[in-house]
Design a protein that fits this description.
There is one protein chain. The chain has three domains: about 180 residues, Beta-Lactamase (2-Layer Sandwich), CATH 3.30.450; about 90 residues, Helix Hairpins (Orthogonal Bundle); about 150 residues, 2-Layer Sandwich (Heat Shock Protein 90), CATH 3.30.565.10. It is built from ten helices and 14 strands.
């Protein structure tokens, strides 16, 4: 079963969206709940302080009224704190409740002494049935307001603030104010319900949009898949249409076409390799077979056997050379040649290779001259560069007539190390020049019409490119050929 990328992308998109929405919903709900409780607590604390201020103001007003009535000083407390600290708090709260009736108009309020005795309370508090907790008073004695949530018998919840009241820095009693959380809980329930339905509906809508967007984005991929399926070994010339998107899809199309280019070149080289091997090996094998059959028809003299064996040896040497060149190209294409870079003096390397061809040049009566003035260095691999020089020299000697001349010139010019090879042959056909370096390209020199596989020149171009250089050829008709290999110059 093939899982669609479109389905996978949509699934991941929806899953991530659900996680993000769930986190957002959780954070939102928590913050709203905390803010609602914070606002309620602040309101309760404010009302508790208001009750404490009202009682304090009432008590101080009574003291001032007693002083104005000229009551003897010994019967009047010197301050409000002295009055409540000497047991006058219950009576004072009672008078305040009776005179002001404030407990009937505010939220449910309860005034509690330090010992936990209820001094007064609002009539509306009786329905809440919230007891005076010792643990609550113990915690409030530390001087900080305490906020608690209670579950009521009718299923609702209430929030109670226990606030300590101070006078002249001394704790004198507690005020407890209660507020219903019915509205707050209803708001939270509505928010929870909205979030509960909003997340799946948003995820469903997002999945549809994600599926549509994934289909839209991956539509070029579908076309590329369809076009790729139409390709085969016989249709490697075809290429997929690259979408002009400027993103990874365009890069994928270009990369795929580049891969097909390499495949096409590989198949082409394979066919050329087979054709070249067949062509180059079939003729000498036919000659060998014919001569051996001829010599075996009757008894021969020792001289005739020796002549045939020498001919066979020459043919075998030619075949071995062709096979060596074919294997060298194959290894080069597969990247199997290990490259060991070193600093080389190009003139000395050319002279060393030229010496190994002296016997071949003398046998054909061709002079080889090396012009290497100065010190020209390159960064390269000795074996590859020796093969490059050997192939160029062998090719030049092969196509230079008797009493001809092959010249190697090594020179540094405009930041380039140049290796120039000239011969005095008949040159190369003009129509063959653009393809002279194609591997296994078969062409004919005008001098003698000798066929050549072109393996050596193809390998020469590969070696030059490995060394970040290039090779060019110029060949005016009947004026010989000139090959120029350029490398980046190296200062030593």
């Amino acid at each position: 079963m093939i899982r669609s990328i479109r389905f996978t992308l949509t699934l991941w998109y929806v899953a991530i969206l659900i996680v993000i929405l769930s986190l957002f919903a959780g954070i939102l709900y928590t913050n709203v709940k905390a803010n609602l409780f914070h606002d309620t607590d602040r309101l309760l604390a404010s009302e508790a302080d208001g009750v404490g201020d009202a009682i304090s103001s009432f008590g101080k007003a009574e003291l001032e009224a007693k002083r104005l009535k000229e009551i003897p000083q010994g019967e009047i407390p010197r301050s409000f704190y002295e009055e409540v600290s000497h047991g006058g708090l219950p009576a004072l709260v009672g008078r305040w409740t009776e005179v002001t009736d404030e407990l009937d108009t505010v939220r449910p309020v309860r005034i509690v002494s330090l010992e936990g005795e209820t001094l007064s309370f609002s009539p509306s508090l009786s329905k809440w049935a919230i007891p005076v907790s010792d643990s609550t008073l113990l915690a409030a004695r530390e001087g900080k307001a305490l906020f608690e949530t209670y579950a009521l018998s009718d299923g609702h919840r209430a929030r109670m603030a226990t606030c300590p009241i101070f006078e002249q820095g001394h704790l004198i009693y507690f005020v407890q104010v209660v507020a219903s959380l019915l509205q707050a809980d209803a708001s939270l329930d509505r928010l929870k319900s909205w979030l509960f339905w909003l997340i799946p509906s948003t995820a469903l809508l997002a999945s549809l949009m994600g599926w549509f967007l994934a289909s839209l984005v991956l539509r070029p991929v579908g076309r590329m898949i369809h076009e790729a399926r139409q390709m085969s070994e016989s249709r490697l010339h075809r290429r997929i249409a690259v979408p002009e998107t400027g993103d990874e899809l365009q890069e994928l199309g270009l990369t795929f076409n580049g891969m097909i280019d390499r495949f096409e070149r590989g198949f082409k080289r394979l066919r050329q390799f087979s054709a070249a091997a067949s062509h180059e090996l079939r003729t000498p094998l036919t000659v060998m077979k014919g001569e051996i059959e001829l010599v075996l028809r009757k008894a021969r003299t020792d001289e005739e056997y020796e002549r045939v064996l020498r001919n066979q040896l020459s043919v075998v040497n030619d075949m071995a050379h062709v096979v060596e060149q074919l294997l060298a190209v194959a290894h080069a294409e597969d990247g199997e040649l290990a490259v060991h870079w070193e600093t080389l003096e190009l003139g000395a390397l050319v002279r060393s290779v030229a010496q190994s061809f002296e016997s071949i040049a003398l046998e054909k009566n061709v002079s080889v001259q090396v012009l290497a003035g100065g010190s020209v260095h390159v960064q390269g691999e000795r074996r590859l560069l020796e093969r490059l020089v050997a192939n160029l020299l062998e090719n030049a000697i092969k196509h230079t007539p008797s009493e001809g001349r092959v010249t190697f010139e090594v020179v540094e010019r405009e930041g380039q190390s140049l290796l120039i090879v000239r011969d005095t042959g008949k040159g190369i056909l003009t129509e063959d020049l653009p393809q002279i370096f194609d591997k296994f390209f078969s062409h004919k020199r005008l001098s003698d019409g000798t066929p050549s596989t072109g393996i050596g020149l193809g390998l020469c171009r590969w070696i030059a490119e490995v060394h970040k250089g290039k090779i060019d050829v110029a060949s005016p008709v009947n004026e010989g050929a000139e090959f120029t290999v350029s490398f980046p110059a190296l200062e030593v």
